[in-house]
From TrEMBL:
<comment type="similarity">
    <text>Belongs to the short-chain dehydrogenases/reductases (SDR) family.</text>
</comment>
<dbReference type="GO" id="GO:0019748">
    <property type="term" value="P:secondary metabolic process"/>
</dbReference>
<dbReference type="InterPro" id="IPR002347">
    <property type="entry name" value="SDR_fam"/>
</dbReference>
<protein>
    <submittedName>
        <fullName>Uncharacterized protein</fullName>
    </submittedName>
</protein>
<dbReference type="GO" id="GO:0005737">
    <property type="term" value="C:cytoplasm"/>
</dbReference>
<dbReference type="InterPro" id="IPR051468">
    <property type="entry name" value="Fungal_SecMetab_SDRs"/>
</dbReference>
<dbReference type="InterPro" id="IPR036291">
    <property type="entry name" value="NAD(P)-bd_dom_sf"/>
</dbReference>
<dbReference type="GO" id="GO:0016491">
    <property type="term" value="F:oxidoreductase activity"/>
</dbReference>
<dbReference type="Pfam" id="PF00106">
    <property type="entry name" value="adh_short"/>
</dbReference>
C-alpha cells in the first residue's frame, strides 16, 4: 500500500460515502477504507461496488467504526495503524437525523453523531494523518449549517426548518475552522464540504424519503467534489466551506 492513497470514509456504506468510494475505487492507486458502524452492511456495500463494474482499479476494505463509541474509535485507529501505518485522506461523513427519537433524546443523538462523533473520530485519526506526505481532513457538512445563509432572507433555504440538523452542522463548521487553524502549519489541508441535497437514507428508508420527494440529486455528482479535494484540485481553497459544484465556497 506504500504507493496507494489511503482514504478512510466514515458512513461509507450508503449515500455520499458509498458514491465517493465507488469513484475512488474506479481509479488506480487508491485504497478506500469503508468505515461503517455495521460491518455486515459495509461488507455488502463493498461487494456491490466490486460486482457493479469491471472498471474497479483501486482496492477496498471494511472497518468497524461507530463514531459515537469511544472504544470503537480507539480499536479502529489501532487497526488502521497496524495495517496501513497512515491515512492520506480522512473524510468524516457519518451523520444522523435521529428520526426514531424526539425532543431532548433526538438532540443528544444528533449532536453525538454529527458533532461530538465527527470531532472525536477526526481527532483520533490525526496522528495517522500526520504520517502522510500529503494529508487531507474533510468534514461533510451542509449549507443548512451556514449561519450566513440561515440569516439571509433571500436564501433559497431561509424558511427551511430542520432546526436541530442546522445547529449540528453549524457546530461542525466551527470545529472545521478550528482544525484548519491548528493543522495548516502541519501540512494538513482541512475542508468543510457541502454535498447538496442527494439521494440518501439519512431521511428514512422509503423511496420518498431517500429522494426527498423527488428533489434529491445523484450522490455520484457530489462525490466528484470530494474526489477533487482528495486528488489535490482544490488545495488553494483549504480552510473553506466548499460548494458541491466547484464554483467556490459557502459563507460560514
Amino acid at each position: 500500500m506504500s504507493d496507494s492513497t489511503i482514504v478512510l470514509i466514515t458512513g461509507a456504506n450508503s449515500g455520499i460515502g458509498y458514491a465517493t468510494t465507488q469513484l475512488l475505487a474506479s481509479q488506480p492507486k487508491h485504497h478506500v477504507i469503508m468505515a461503517c458502524r455495521d460491518v455486515s452492511k459495509g461488507q455488502q456495500a463493498l461487494t456491490e461496488i466490486q460486482n457493479s463494474s469491471d472498471k474497479i482499479q483501486g482496492t477496498l476494505s471494511v472497518l468497524q467504526l461507530d463514531v459515537t463509541d469511544d472504544s470503537s474509535i480507539a480499536a479502529a485507529v489501532e487497526t488502521v495503524r497496524q495495517q496501513f501505518g497512515r491515512v492520506d485522506a480522512f473524510i468524516s461523513n457519518a451523520g444522523t437525523l435521529a428520526l426514531q427519537s424526539s425532543g431532548r433524546a433526538q438532540l443528544r443523538e444528533m449532536f453525538d453523531a454529527n458533532v461530538f462523533g465527527a470531532l472525536l473520530v477526526s481527532e483520533a485519526f490525526i496522528p495517522l494523518l500526520l504520517q502522510s506526505a500529503r494529508p487531507y481532513l474533510v468534514q461533510v457538512s451542509s449549507a443548512l449549517g451556514s449561519v450566513g445563509l440561515a440569516s439571509d432572507p433571500n436564501d433559497t433555504w431561509y424558511a427551511t426548518a430542520w432546526y436541530e440538523y442546522r445547529m449540528t452542522k453549524a457546530a461542525l463548521n466551527m470545529a472545521t475552522i478550528q482544525f484548519h487553524k491548528r493543522l495548516s502549519a502541519q501540512n494538513v489541508r482541512v475542508f468543510a464540504f457541502c454535498p447538496g441535497l442527494v439521494r440518501s437514507k439519512i431521511r428514512g428508508d422509503s423511496e420518498e424519503a431517500i429522494t426527498a420527494q423527488g428533489a434529491a440529486g445523484d450522490p455520484i455528482d457530489s462525490a466528484k467534489g470530494l474526489v477533487d479535494i482528495v486528488q489535490g484540485r482544490r488545495d488553494a481553497e483549504a480552510g473553506q466551506f466548499l460548494r458541491t459544484d466547484g464554483s467556490g465556497s459557502w459563507p460560514w
